[in-house]
Design a protein that fits this description.
The complex is a heterodimer of chains A (432) and B (254). Chain A is an alpha/beta fold. In chain A, 19% of the residues lie in helices and 38% in strands. In chain A, the strands form two sheets. Chain A has a ten-stranded mixed sheet with strand order 2-1-5-7-9-11-13-15-17-19, with helices on one face. In chain A, strands 3-4-6-8-10-12-14-16-18 form a nine-stranded mixed sheet. The termini of chain A are far apart. With 254 residues, chain B is α/β, with parallel strands linked by helices. Chain B is built from ten helices and twelve strands. In chain B, the strands form three sheets. Chain B has a six-stranded mixed sheet, with helices on both faces. In chain B, helix 2 crosses helix 3 and helix 6 packs parallel to helix 7. Chain B is globular, with a radius of gyration of 18 Å. Classes of the chains: A alpha/beta (432), B alpha/beta (254). Chains A and B meet through helix 6 and helix 7 of A and helix 2, strand 7 and helix 3 of B.
Chain lengths: 432, 254
């Protein structure tokens, strides 16, 4: 098919895939893809007229010319930048969504199934959970991903299993001609299992300005516990649309640590956590340090559906230069969700005089016996604190580092994994 | 050691110091007293190099070096220490890490290698005792949730750790109960030596019973209008600042 560059990405997608969606056994997926494609066809890419995309304009991103399929790259990919000093972990390397057997070290681990998502189509839990939650959100990018993805990662931690080491998933952006990459992940934490998944996003040497559309579905079943880290350390050409949909069952715990550092020019995270049953606990922590002309947008939803649940969210943004950070935190407390305890805090430190922060806490409470609190601050360096440190002999630059550390402390001190915490603190320092 | 000549300084274009002279020699303790608004705290802040204070005239030399040209951190590295009237709380910066950073930066400035972890910890232990500073406080975030007394004791603990040439205590006695005052004063007295000097800024004679000064100066309207020995402080205590104000204003009227 011949397309001209002037075609919008939308019309090219429709032309290329209408009636021609990826297909594989089981055929049951075909119908899901078709419906998703129709949804996307109807809505198209979101524009700034959508409230959820008000500060994040996708249009310049989706007007460029992209190849629509990632070439299967060579096994070689530079993952050096993703390595976390002293972290002992099982490693999974995904190159533009393709599972790299050579670079991964997760074979034959008791209780752990890791495979390319396309190899998991016949598994029972895939049939049960795939597109079950993410596609109920109204994000058109999820629909697009559901319709078109052919690669991604499937992780299942078996019932009652407690992984002895974290799983470190390294997503490498590698295609050397600009490519629009759809990656679909499904992680299932079986009953009473425990694991830690650390995901790093990096750019391969020579990679083009690829646009990645990730959709990850995470199911945390009864009594299971998952610690989930995002470490966004890609280079400037990287552009990321990243939708994470978490569904939690009774007595489960889900902790998400979302860290973004100077680099990737465009990052949009949608992190939706559905507390689907009673006595569920969820923690969402975010630390975003931006520089240059970066745009980092974190949209979160914490959805309390049932009684006696607890959620705790704390996001911190530090913006430098002409960068922009967006935080939108929505909390739903549904009519059934009595005795909910929900907390949300967002603090922003603008360092760059021409940097910007948009922040919006949104609470929608339909139950009447709940405890919900939220707070939001925007500030700059505390000059009194700066002077105090300098008056003790600490150089101005070092003093600023100490103060940013201190600002991030409320979040970094909550990290369950101290090795990751040290790594993140180091990246904060290096990113200033 | 410290030589201040004809110092004029203003805050937001309001002149506060109007020709202040002061000579401090090594081994001496000078008390600066004076009524509210006379410029006492301005003096401390100007010496430490706070941005908001603009020096419009005069010179300040520390062992012959022009202090006013240096950044706050370089002044500290040259040996100036201001014990803050209102120490800042900095959650997330641990007291100990902060002190280690400060101490090692000062050492680096002097061409000394950083202290070994063990040497540093021994020093911390030893100096904590000096001001009866609780080890638990030392490990907490800088001044976070400290009581007024604990903050002031922390200032003196930092002073003990950094061993400056010239220490300026800005109303260190304010907000202290009598026991804390004694502890702080004892710490300062133990730190006094032939190689360092103290400038003690205070409203009240009370502190000077514990830290006995060699000289007492009275600051009024941005200048030192009386200087004497510790007896001057007693006289002030007895007669009040009105006595100074009246006599000085009368002199000015002549």
């Amino acid at each position: 098919m011949i397309t001209t560059v002037s075609d919008s990405l939308y019309s090219r997608l429709i032309k290329t895939y209408e009636g021609n969606l990826p297909s594989a056994d089981p055929r049951s997926l075909d119908e899901i893809r078709k419906q998703a494609f129709d949804r996307f066809k109807e809505t198209g890419f979101p524009t700034v007229k959508h409230e959820d995309w008000k500060y994040t304009n996708l249009q310049p991103l989706v007007s460029g010319g992209y190849a629509l399929e990632a070439p299967r790259s060579a096994a070689r990919a530079s993952i050096g930048k993703a390595l976390i000093p002293d972290l002992d972990a099982y490693r999974v390397v995904m190159v533009d969504g393709h599972y790299s057997e050579d670079l991964s070290t997760v074979a034959d681990i008791p209780g752990l199934s890791v495979m390319p998502i396309q190899d998991a189509f016949n598994r029972l839990c895939f049939a049960k959970y795939f597109s079950e939650y993410a596609d109920k959100s109204d994000n058109p990018l999820v629909a697009l991903n559901t319709a078109l993805f052919t690669t991604g990662l499937f992780i299942e931690v078996a019932k009652n299993h407690q992984l002895d080491k974290p799983i470190h998933v390294i997503h490498v952006s590698s295609a050397t001609a600009p490519t629009f990459v759809q990656v679909r992940n499904l992680y299932v934490m079986s009953l009473f299992s425990q694991a830690e998944i650390i995901e790093s996003f990096v750019t391969d040497a020579g990679a083009a300005a690829n646009l990645h559309n990730f959709v990850s579905e995470v199911v945390v079943r009864e009594g299971a516990k998952l610690q989930h880290y995002y470490l966004q350390v890609a280079d400037e050409q990287g552009k990321y649309l990243n939708h994470t949909e978490v569904y939690q069952e009774k007595h489960s715990l889900y902790n998400h640590y979302n860290c973004t550092f100077p680099g990737a020019s465009f990052v949009r995270n949608n992190i939706n956590v559905r507390l689907g049953d009673s006595e569920v606990e969820s923690h969402l922590y975010g630390i975003t340090l931006t520089a240059g002309n970066q745009l980092v947008d974190n949209h979160t939803i914490v959805d309390h559906k049932k009684p006696h649940c607890e959620s705790y969210e704390w996001y911190k943004n530090i913006t430098q230069d002409t960068s922009t950070a967006v935080f939108n935190g929505k909390i739903f407390v549904r009519p059934d969700a009595q005795k909910t305890n929900a907390f949300q805090q967002n603090n922003n430190m603008l360092i760059g005089e021409r940097s910007a922060v948009y922040t919006k806490p949104q609470l929608e409470i339909f139950a009447d016996d709940v405890k919900c609190s939220h707070g939001c601050t925007i500030g700059q360096f505390d000059n009194d604190a700066l002077f105090y440190l300098r008056a003790r002999g600490v150089g101005e630059e070092q003093a600023r580092v100490l103060l940013v550390h201190a600002f991030a402390f409320d979040v970094t001190s909550r990290f369950a994994n101290t090795t990751v915490r040290e790594y993140v603190e180091h990246l904060v320092e290096a990113g200033l | 050691m410290l030589s201040i000549k004809n110092l004029h300084a203003s805050v937001e274009d309001k002149a506060i110091l109007k020709g202040l002279d002061l000579e401090v020699k090594a081994g001496e303790v000078h008390a600066i007293m004076g009524p509210n608004g006379s410029g006492k705290s301005t003096l401390g802040n100007v010496l430490a190099g706070r941005d908001a204070y603009e020096v419009t005239e005069g010179e300040v030399l520390l062992d012959g070096k022009d202090l006013l040209e240096l950044s706050p951190e370089d002044r500290a590295r040259e040996g100036v220490f201001l014990a803050f009237q209102y120490p800042v709380e900095i959650p997330g910066v641990s007291n100990i890490n902060f002190l280690k950073t400060a101490l090692n930066e000062i050492r680096a400035y002097k061409g000394l290698p950083p202290l070994e972890a063990r040497e540093f910890l021994n020093l911390v232990k030893e100096r904590q005792k000096l001001v009866e500073f609780d080890a638990k406080l030392a490990n907490r975030s800088l001044n976070e949730g400290f009581s007024g007394g604990e903050k002031k004791r922390n200032e003196i603990f930092q002073l003990a750790m950094l061993e400056p040439k010239l220490a300026i205590l800005d109303e260190t006695d304010s907000g202290l109960d009598i026991d804390a005052l004694r502890i702080v004063a004892r710490g300062v007295n133990q730190l006094r030596s032939q190689n360092n000097a103290f400038v003690v800024i205070t409203h009240y004679q009370r502190l000077l019973e514990y830290i006995v000064p060699d000289f007492v100066h009275v600051l009024y309207k941005g200048r030192i209008v009386r200087s004497g020995t510790k007896e001057l402080a007693l006289e002030l205590e007895e007669k009040g600042y009105d006595w100074i104000k009246e006599t000085v204003d009368a002199e000015g009227a002549v």
